[in-house]
Structure formats: C-alpha cells, structure tokens
Amino acid sequence: MEKVGGKPPQSRLCFLATLCAMFWVLIFYFHFFVIANEPASAGADTAAGAAASIARAELPLPEPERVSDPAVPLAPPALVSEPPPTTATVAKVEEEEKPTAVVHQEAAPRDYAFQRALKTAENKSDPCGGRYIYVHELPPRFNDDMLRECERLSLWTNMCKFMSNDGLGPPLGNEEGVFSNTGWYATNQFMVDVIFRNRMKQYECLTKDSSIAAAVFVPFYAGFDVARYLWGHNISTRDAASLDLIDWLRKRPEWNVMGGRDHFLVGGRIAWDFRRLTDEESDWGNKLLFMPAAKNMSMLVVESSPWNANDFAIPYPTYFHPAKDADVLLWQDRMRSLERPWLFSFAGAPRPDDPKSIRSQLIDQCRTSSVCKLLECDLGESKCHSPSAIMNMFQSSLFCLQPQGDSYTRRSAFDSMLAGCIPVFFHPGSAYVQYTWHLPKNYTRYSVFIPEDGVRKGNVSIEDRLKSIHPDMVKKTREEVISLIPRVIYADPRSKLETLKDAFDVSVEAIISKVTQLRRDIIEDHEDKDFVEENSWKYDLLEEGQRTIGPHEWDPFFSKPKDKGGDSTNPSTNAAKNSWKNEQRGHN
After folding, report:
1. What is the pLDDT of residues 511-533, one digit of tens each?
2. What predicted TM-score, i.e. pTM, was given to this entire model?
C-alpha cells in the first residue's frame, strides 16, 4: 500500500464505511422482517420444553403428605402403572376447509397392584394359592397390652381368668357326665377377639408378602377396647384407640392397595357397641364402624346390623373347643342317640322394661305346659349360669326357644344347636339375616320360625305349633342341626381340625371370597353402582350369582331401622346397655 502523507486514500475509507453500513442493514432487515414473521420451529419448541423440564427436575420434590384424619376420602385401588391416556390424532386439512377426523385409541387395560394375589389361585401346585392371609404386626397397645390389663376390661367381671388356654378359659369338669371328657371350657361369650387371633396364628396359609395376600387381617382387640371405656368415660377416650388404629393403618403401604377394602378385623361384641351416631357424651359406644376409613374394612362381630354393609356376624363362642376331628364326630354321634323327653324348653329371664319382648309370654306358656322344661334366669337363679345345667336341659329337649335377647341375638342359640336341639326363632334378626356364612339360607332346614307378633297377641300356642310338626320332619331337622355343629364352634386354637371346618375356617373362607369377588368386579368394572346399604340384609340372603333384590317377606321386620339399632338414642342403645346389665347379673 502506498502512503500519502502517512494517511490512506480518502476513497478507500469511504468504500469500507459504506460496506460496513450495508452489512448491518442486511442483518437488521433479516432479523426484524424475515425471522419475526415465520412460525417458531419445532426444534426451538422442543429445546425450550426440554430446558423447562430440566429446570423442574432440579427443583426439590415436596414430601408426601401424611393423612391422619379418617374423614379424608380414601384413594381408589392402587395401580401398578398408570395406563396411557386415550389420545386423538387430528388429520390436517389442505387448502380448503375439511371436517376434522378424530381417531380414538383404546386405553390399555389397568394393571392393579392386587392382581398378583389373584394370580396365585391359578397355581394348582400351590395348596395356598388364592388363600394367603397377611397379618399386620400391630403395636402392642392395640392388643397384647389390653390382655396385660385384663382386670380393667369389665366393671363386673375379672376377665383375667378367661384369658387362660388361649382365650378358652379354665377347663370344665364333667362330674355330671353332661360333657365329653376333653375340649370343654368355661368360655366367656365375649372372647372371640382373642380366640380368633390365636386361631389365625395356626392358619396354614399365612404370608409375609402382602402382595400375594387374598386378604389382610388386623389383630385389633376392638371388643376389649370398647368394653373398657363404655361406662364413665367421655367420647374422646372411647374413640381414641380406634382413631389411632385408623391413623396407623392409613400410613401402611398395604392399606393403599385397596384403601382398606381387603382388610378385616374382629370385634367380639354386638355391632351397636361400635355404632355411636352422635358426639353426645350420653350416647352409647364408640364410632369405629362409622369412621369413613373403617367403613372400607370388614368387621366380624357376634351380631351385625341389618342395615349396614361393613359388619358380618360370626357365632358366639360355645363351651366346646375340640382339638381334633374325632372329638367332634364322637360328640355328634352322642347327640344323635340321646333320649329327649321334653318337647321344648326355655332358659331365660323376662324383660319387663321392654314392651316388645315376648319372653314373659314364653315363660307363661312353658309354665302351663307339661312338655316344656323351664330354666328361669332371674337374679336368684344360679343354674342359668351353669354350663352343665344349660347343656343338660338342651340335650333333653327336641326344640329350644330362642327369642331375642337384649339385642337381636343370644349365645344360647349356639349352645342349643351344640346340644342337637332344634332352635325356634321368633324374629329373622336373631339368626336368619345374621349368620348367613355359617347357617343355611333356607332356615327351614335347621329351625322353626314362629313370628313373635302372634305370640305377643296371644294368638299362637307354642306347644300346638311344635306338636303339629311330623316326627319324620323333626328327625330330619335335628340331623341337619347336628351336622352344622362343626361350623358353629371354634376349635382349640392350640391345634387344628384335620378335615372339618370350624367357625373360624368358615369365616376366613367367606372373607377371602368377598375380597376376591370385589377385586374381580373392580377389574371388570362390574361393581354394583345401585347397592342400597339400608337393604344390606337382603343382599346377604341372595344366592351365589344373584345381584338383584326386591320385596321380601321379612320387610315388615326391618322396615324401620330405628326400632332396633338405627338410632343410638332409641331402644337399641338401651338394648346394648341392658346386655351389660345382664352380664353384671350373670357374674355377681
């Protein structure tokens, strides 16, 4: 380059300046007019989305909320993996307007967490397939601690003596020859909590893997819990353990599989003790069975509510707890061979404070009959609380009168069946809508039904009604009763019957069947959306495969729930209280 006076020529400077200006003009034109008017590219969107995802991934995840309030709605059954959502692909239109074409893709079938448990039943080489039970390991405050404080479980009875022999109580002597030589115990009628749990310990299909369990057992002593606080304690104390239990269960992964619908527990008392409707301090019992979370569980009680779907009746414990099949078979043969000189018998006390009770009429008819044996259970009669006196009377009778107790049911019904005595019921709530797992739904096979209204009005003679039954029918019905004995007794928890099924076995099978059917209904979306809980007793009477209910001959007995347990401020609450008074009378 030539130098002129140390400076570049003027023309070259102008050329360079012009060239630089034109370059920046082109840059600005391309940016503001070309790029700004074009749609954003897919690649740019993808990059932006990826950047946002990365930013979100780097944020700390919140801790999952622990729900302890049982009033919070329960979650639906857990899925192994959420299915892909249904998608729609919209066809693009060209120049002219065309209708949008939508193509629906079917949703993939859901894979529920409980399906592994269902599949175990398909393994024919596994004798426990479809029968596994998972047992929660509850803190001892829910069970064992109550037994350690057994003297506090009843105001009038020291329950400690009944805790011996795994809940069977002390052995009974056989000085009068009424019992067999082994298997007989002075069992308290409210000991099902302990007996059932100890029987469960011997169950052959227990598992530590809850994912293969057909059902989940909660070994909470619900009956003992409510018993210790019924008198002289406020509702906060009465409800505390139940609320604590629900809170503990809801934090467990096993609960989340079905929201507790595969869980079951035992309360060895009548359902009304667990159905307090209000929070008035004067109201009876606790509210365990009304807690939303507990409603999903199945509770086994000695008397259920005809109008509720989450409790199921199981037999009261009797005095007989055999250790092997031979003990049962020998007893059944003995009951078949007995001479029964009395046409009918009744063991009980009148209920003068209950205008609906027919006990006074039954006592009057028995007193005036030459073929009736009466064992009056008033305050001065101790034989009514003697197992040998009661069983001896039942063994000598063809028919045993079983009116309502302080509530619908009474232990005496099972004691009489154990003695081979045909029970005579006066209300369908005393057995027919209660023990549908353990007794035939066709009640005429094992019992006689005489509606109580006719007895109350004096229009029915018990003696004439029973004498009208043909001897062949009596023999057939008694044989049915004797054949049912294994199903209504609890075997010794320290052993197991070889082939016969006792009340525990029948109950567990029924729970497994219930949960299994529910799981299948969920998978197939066949849950009964029209289920009416107030008609629960009707559903319990349906045969297998039936789902539709309609008018029933027993509608008049159950048309007004408030008559017996629908309202905790009415006579049903008094019935529950009276059952405690009767317990006091029986052990003083």
Report:
1. 999 999 999 999 998 877 778 88
2. 0.80
Where does residue 163 rank: exposed (0-12), middle (13-18), buried (19+ CB within 10 A)? middle
Secondary structure (3-state) at 301: strand
Q: Classify 330 as helix, strand or coil.
A: helix
User: Residue 45: left if φ>0, alpha if ψ -120 to 50, beta else—which one?
Assistant: alpha
State pLDDT tens for residues 20-58.
777 766 676 655 554 445 444 444 444 444 444 433 334
Q: Does the CA dihedral 373-374-380-386 come out positive or negative? A: positive
CB 297 within 8 A of CB 490: no
Q: Dmax over Cα atoms in the chain, in whole Å?
A: 155
- Residue 167 · residue 191 · CB < 8 Å: yes
Distance of CA 87 to the CA centre of its chain: 40
- Tens digit of each residue's pLDDT (9 = 90 or more) over 545-579: 777 888 999 999 997 544 444 433 444 555 555 55
Give 270's DSSP letter: E
Taking 3-state DSSP, the helix, strand and coil percentages for the chain, each rounded to the nearest 5, stand at 45, 10, 45
Cβ 490 vs Cβ 169: under 8 Å: no
CATH 3.40.50.2000 location in the chain: 335-488
Place of tokens 């003679």: 461
* Dihedral sign, Cα of residue 526, residue 218, residue 541, residue 496: positive
Round to whole Å and give the CA distance between 193 and 222.
Answer: 7
Fold that domain 335-488 belongs to in CATH: Rossmann fold (3.40.50)
